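Forwarding the complex inputs:
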Amino acid sequence: MSETAPNLIEQRGSLGFQSPPIPATVPDAVAMTEQHYFHAEHMATLRKLGDVLLPPLNGYPGSTQACAPEFIDFLISVSPAERQHMYRSGLDRLNADAQKHFGVPFAKVNEEQADTLLRPWLRVWMRDHPPTEPFAAFINVAHEDIRTATMNSQAWSIAATSAGERAPGIGWYWSPIDPDIQMYV
Amino acid sequence: MPEENVDVLIIGSGHSGGMVAKVLTEKGISCLMLNAGPIVDFQKDRELKPAYELPYRGFNMPGRLPHVFQANEFNANTWVDEKEVPYTFNRDEPYNWVRVRLFGGRSLFWSRQSFRLSDYEFKARDHDGFGDNWPISLADLAPYYSRVEEIFRVSGHPDGLPQYPDGNFVVDDSPWSGSMQRLIAAGKKLNVPVCKARSAMGRGGLASSINLLLPDAFATGKLTAVPNVVVREITVDKNTGLANGANFVDRHSRREMSVKAKVVVLAAGCLESTRLLLNSKLANSSGVLGHYLIDNIYGPGVVCSVPEARDGKATPDLMGGDALIPRFRNIDGKAKNFIGGYALNLWSSDRAMDPRNFAAYGAELQKKLDSYYGSGFYMSMMGQVLSHYEHQVGIDKNVVDAWDIPVLHVDTKYTDNEFNMSRDAVDTGVAMAEAAGFEVLAKNYEPNPPGYSIHELGTCRMGDNPKTSVLNKWNQSHDIKNLFVVDGSSFVGSGWQNPTMTILALSMRSAEYLAEQLRQKNVG
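Prediction (whole assembly, two chains):
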């Protein structure tokens, strides 16, 4: 009679085996996101928008330092078409407005010019109910996305820890629970 | 080879299925419980993580769970995937069907707000002149509410209001914070009551069927539970017309199986139970099955700031605590453009405010967030949705789920009554906030899509007349006397209340009736 698999496992001692802690590093700590979705002009506009909306403040990284634009480039690249359209047309509009009012692309506007372009579109809103006007929706949703991508970054977490403050974005993560073993899509 | 038929087959393991299992097994009746999803292990299946360790940095995976607004990257794996179990709806009338198939169902994650319906809801037709009365009244259900409240340890304060019936509470005599006192005073000026919230404390941090109901059932030795099996249809004895079991499919292997039982109890959650009956082509001699879909309006609300709590001056005496404004419209007077009623949840927070509450950015926004920290006061609406025959679900024969089971098509929308009620709720909240001296920062009049509240109700309504209802007042099918449906699908009207306590009380009452019918050999 051949030995059963559990017996073999027991003999080799793996029943009592404790996995050693293996320190893991997130890829953002060692690498840059390969930017690929937005074209150069869009990306420059998005980077500038991030710098304006969330610059480095009080020892915390800004949008650029947290690589938020590159992350958003990835995020929008895998998003539904409606959200992709909102971003592309919003970035186009922002750039066109900058050219129209100041004769330069949005990436080149100064602080005061940026404020002139953005402030009329800032809205107060509540979760799940962003502004309905398309350009206002873009400005305000992009603002939220930039803040989330920045504040949920490891760079922000490190800054919070250094400041002796609680890092945001920590929660109970649920792993897939006995997921279906068959492909269904 | 299974030895014998079980007495009762229970499909679903949430609050209603758990209650039926507890009641029946404690009376010595053997039960088999089938659940479509796996058993969750709170220690193994979840861990604290920072968002930057997640694949999408805390954003939900784009395109995943588009109709589960509650979903985020942390909890995404707890919801039913819309690709695995799809449903359809009309293009311009989205429906948010928010589902959990884990063992214990949505009882694992509910908000724990614990209310009784009042006779303003049970006898809505008499009071409002619209819809239908339930075949029962508060007096019929009150003893069961009391027992449920004891099991779930509902904290609350007796207020003596007929529209907010008192219960068997762990009495909450905690003092009001200063901000709440100011809102209470403002409410008195406007004739709007502000009461203590009512909430299930549960035990050990959970108020679920898996810790409050099912352990008692398992302890009897009379409950057998099978996870990971998706019920395809209820089966019927061709000679008697009675239900005699179910056909189901193993979730992983797709192996088709069947089981026999003397009685079948559906507790799969409102729309899943109705879907199962529709797919089984059962219990619909009335033609009402699938109709009268209702829920609660969620989404409208107000965000305020308490000026005296700004700039680091928030104290525990001033800020903190929650409260509830129970229905006050259409009690004595008549609202000008809607019938029924709504409630407002209130909470005073000593935490950070949401940046979306300020039309600012950069350093200016940070300055505002710092200044307003700890001064937030929030109001959110829970509103009644009126029952309409044409708000319905049916089977979409062109779409099947991952187990080749035809899916539901949902056809519903909110009407002027719901929109007018929402507007009144927000305007009332603003008026109260201003009367209290609060600064109103944001308000939203727009309800979230139907279904968002996770309180889908109706579609298998109870009633005395078999021609206009699917179930009798004991949650028993008019057509098939050994078939019971004990989840929220039996509701005749929604009211403004979180329905969980009512679902639990109804399922307890139904199970006791069923046990007696089994004892008398009237069923089974």
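The first helix of chain B runs from residue 15 to 26.
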